[in-house]
Amino acid sequence: GQQVMQIPQYQHVQEGEDFTTYCNSSTTLSNIQWYKQRPGGHPVFLIQLVKSGEVKKQKRLTFQFGEAKKNSSLHITATQTTDVGTYFCAGSSYNQGGKLIFGQGTELSVKP
Amino acid sequence: EAGVVQSPRYKIIEKKQPVAFWCNPISGHNTLYWYRQNLGQGPELLIRYENEEAVDDSQLPKDRFSAERLKGVDSTLKIQPAELGDSAVYLCASSLDLGGAYTGELFFGEGSRLTVL
Prior knowledge:
A: 112 residues, five-stranded antiparallel beta sheet, 11 strands, B: mainly beta
């Protein structure tokens, strides 16, 4: 079945450093979503990417969807302590009728 | 506007006991999801409803788990009997889906943390 894999599992950075998490799917995706979960909290939607090669920015966050629509990345420029949390990608395939499969997440810790 | 409401927030039970979780989605959202999240893992889909119809329950352990969404609004998820391995956070989410291959933005509730002793 469809699998969504994320790397790295953990990332520890110094405040001000950049951070990137990568997401890879075993199947071609119709769309990919990114969520952030703060410690003890629930996942909160960040963005959705639909088009091949799409790039979207939200302040210091840059999201990319691969040309083949099988991978995606989230890049944070100049991390802040408020960026702490786990970032999940979640994708749905054309043949899965909209079923959203989550990756394992990348846990980001930021040292002030 | 109220978000997705779940109860209880926490539940501690002994193994073999039954447990039930309740979810009230965002008003007007036609799709409702139950996910299970183990520590350090991503949410795993248990069941997805479109209105009152369960359209994907392939990951639901049907020997002990059951779910219902009466009238296409509130939903309950039940486990009977609970096992030690069921300890996890059970997340309910809802979305407004317009059909097709795309999934709308998921709005999650706070989750119900289950501990089975």
